[in-house]
Batch of 3 targets.
Target 1
Amino acid sequence: MGENGTMRGIYVHVPFCVRKCGYCDFYSVVDGEEARERFCGLLLQELEILLRSYPGEANVPADTVYFGGGTPSVLGPERLCRLLAGIRSRLPVAEGAEVTLEANPGTIRGEDFFRLREEGFTRVSLGVQSFLPATLEALGRIHSVDDVHAALENARKARFPSVGIDLIFGNPGQEETDWEADIDCAAAIHPDHLSAYALSPEPGTPIHGQIERGEISVPSDDAAARMYETARRALASAGYRHYEISNFAMPGMECRHNGKYWRREGYLGLGPSAHGLLFPGESAPLGMRTENPPSLPEYARRLDEGRLSWVEVEARSGEDAWKEFLIFGLRLEEGVSLAEGEKRYGPQPRNLLEAVDRLVASGSLVRDRERLRMPEAFWFVSNEALRRLA
Ligand code: SF4
């Protein structure tokens, strides 16, 4: 077992997309088949070097594997199955593990779902973003609304235990009624899991540039806050539990893998730009953060030299660990257990205790015996409160 008797997760960053969307700054490239094939070899090479450097890691079972990106589905089912089998042959993956694939509805065919399901994928997360063609176009997405319906139907036919979708609100030119229509469409197709993110065009992306130059406009902060409330209300009445600031699930369908980030449990991060949290024992008892370079050539160069691709490795102090525990854990509806924090990391540092007291006094956090949580009214502006703990 890993830290605190929990099993760990494995995150695989697949750094390919068919085309870059106008708002995105995740690391991905549009390289073709040759690069995709080479990446699969590199990823397993990375895992082998990691296990040679930290042999104890080979004994920690994983109960989640998550293929994110980028657009993992562009690898195609054969490569994805090969990667999963390669991971399983090098590390123990528990029976009943949650195995997620992020998929772009425009890059996955009906039979692909059956092949992936056969190999042990259990969960598919579709990057839908909107059900309105004009919004998809404004975001620079490659898929159509028909692709979304076909992907959903095929995932269900292939008997995926969990099918989720991602939506974005606060999009260029989006009216509040457009978002209401998106939420109605989402509720009508009954995904098991739904993530709703506010658009945040990163500096350097085309949409950010267009907003800066006044060529397009996005809804005001007040309108985006109302859109968030619309989603909360409509999805609650459709039976979803709003279990994390941006995530909704039917009961029991919460994402187990992302839960590891929020609860500060261990996970390996493989692939360019992937981050990890390892608990390698005495050398870093409170955890060690790892970070791969956001560059496929640099990642390949380091691995070809026979060394780990990490550009940053940082053992966490008690204060770091506490901050991470609070900042990620307070995103959850359940909040955090302060007794659990003390058990793991020792007494809470005084400066953090004072920052928490101030947030409790202002109403941004609520302390209920040994639990601390953020009231739902503050979730849309949670970053502001959480920044005070950083
Ligand atoms: S498909 Fe996803 S990762 Fe790729 S560019 Fe679009 S938003 Fe970014």
Target 2
Amino acid sequence: MIELRHLEKKYENATPLQDVNAVIRDGDVISVIGPSGTGKSTLIRCINMLERPTGGQILLDGEDITAPKYDLTKARRRMGMVFQSFNLFGHLTVIENLMLAPMDILKKSKQEAYDTGVALLRRVGLAGRELQYPEQLSGGQKQRVAIARTLAMDPDVILLDEPTSALDPTMVGEVQAVIRDLAKSGKTMLIVTHEMSFARAISNRVFYMDEGGIYEDGTPEQVFDHPRKELTRRFIRRLKVLELLIDSRDFDFIGAGTQIDLYCLQNDIPPKEKYRIRLVIEELVQQILLAAFAEPDVRVTVEYAPDAQTAVIFADYTGDRFDPRDSDNELSLSVLTGVTETIDFKYDDSQKQNHVEIRLK
Ligand SMILES: Nc1ncnc2c1ncn2[C@@H]1O[C@H](COP(=O)(O)OP(=O)(O)O)[C@@H](O)[C@H]1O
Ligand SMILES: [Mg+2]
């Protein structure tokens, strides 16, 4: 059990942790979410004392690990850390990466460290990769090695700081699968993540961090579906909605495609639906609206309703009345009608505001 009591971390120009209080029970799998800069990494790094808190206490099974005389190697043996950027040793083979700390710190024999390493590689789906170097592996494979390396120390607690956010979207799944397997094994885990559906699937608790502390603490259902407090509500809503502002003819549609991929990943939107969302935005905005307006000012909002498993796409733009269904681009219109259930259009004369609402099939 880990108890955080009035934990504080002050930097010269920021105090990300003002007063953090929490009890983390054995076996808890906690997703830590919140806007950027709210101290999620700082919290994780303070818990295993990679950063020394400036105030408060951390009790590990009742023992205060922040006490000046406490032997930190004891706490660090019990807590493993997985970073966004893998942090593997590039000059060592995969198996050497896994053997190093168990031999150095746990004083395991070479044979024992090797055997454990081989078994762990198999567990993360990388049997046979022992003698490769990290640079020969993909990002997803590197992160799985990093997780195996953490497991080689047999920690009681695993802290993961955005373990999939440096990965190409195609590799997120394989790393999530390994983490999901760990979560099921009963290890205590804290994981900073932006992927809501993943957080929901693996954790029994969610910490929403804001305003210098754990602003809301609850089950995934509570925090994601019925947030109690205003800032949580706003954050969750923003996660569920994707907004694109197309305010120039040079708008970066390729970059927007990446944003759409990420949004779909975070919300567990199936590939087929993702493809349709991209198609609608391409045809509606790039082909039809950009042809109609010399100076575009279009706000696109995508909302996905997991229950109904459908996406709704809104496009709002100021200017003269222009109903996209009246476009003479018949090709784009036929593509649009092919993937959509309904296309509705409204125009507000007084505000000169066009509003399009598209429901996907
Ligand atoms: N080593 C550091 N030195 C100074 N300021 C830092 C340091 N690490 C983090 N901060 C500041 O603390 C705040 C929280 O950072 P961080 O914990 O990385 O947030 P998050 O992980 O939620 O994005 C930020 O304002 C950041 O600039
Ligand atoms: Mg961070």
Target 3
Amino acid sequence: MLVNQSQLKDQYNDKGYFVIRNYFSDIEISQLRETILTFHELWKKDNETFYQEEAFNSSLITGSQYLSFDDRVLLFNFISSPKVMAVVESLIPISPAFMNTQLFFNPVNPAQKDFWHRDCQYDHDIEGQKIAINNTQVVHLRVPLFDELGIELVPETHRRWDNDEEFNVRQEEKGKLSSDELSLGKKIKLATGDLLVFSADMIHRGLYGMDRLALDILVFDPDSEFADYVDEDCLPEPVMMKNINDPRLFQTTIDLKSQ
Ligand SMILES: O=C(O)CCC(=O)C(=O)O
């Protein structure tokens, strides 16, 4: 067995995250990094103003806009590799579904600060957020392509609401800023080869600095209503499916979208 799935599930259910150190080999990461850098360079050129002024991430890395057929196949095969699937299936054992990928980098403007949030806050008002954290959540798998300061998160907030300090900082209320320190924040420094898995709806922030370039893979439980969020272009086309060793993760999304 590649991982102890029940131990990972227990850690995730309890704390909202886990890290597996040194999970990927140098070869696995260097191939992935080369493809991701191809994407990143083209994306930066195409989004020059946004990149210079405010960007700290891009998405749809597996889409057809910047990468060749072969690069996309390499990415799809990494995302659905036995190592990644073993981790995904520890949390979502039956028919996990692929949602998207995001690439996180340092903002160009050094004054831009890293900020606390729950991903669901961008789609829901406060009452909706409270419901969202009690329902099935999106899982992020973070694969750092260089050593980085990592992510700071507040353990257990995938299953509890904010305390006053957290709420005021995250929502920028009562004179607080979303970049202020939080007393219960836990910094998870990451090195290439590590894998961090965390709930997108827990309170977290990326830590800017070093040469960070991290690929986040987003997956969801097929029972939740996330298929509409998936951009069709980031899924493999039928001819590509034949080149993916284990296409189940993508097939589930394709099936959900056609329902
Ligand atoms: O790394 C970052 O800048 C933020 C990460 C994040 O918010 C996420 O992965 O959902």
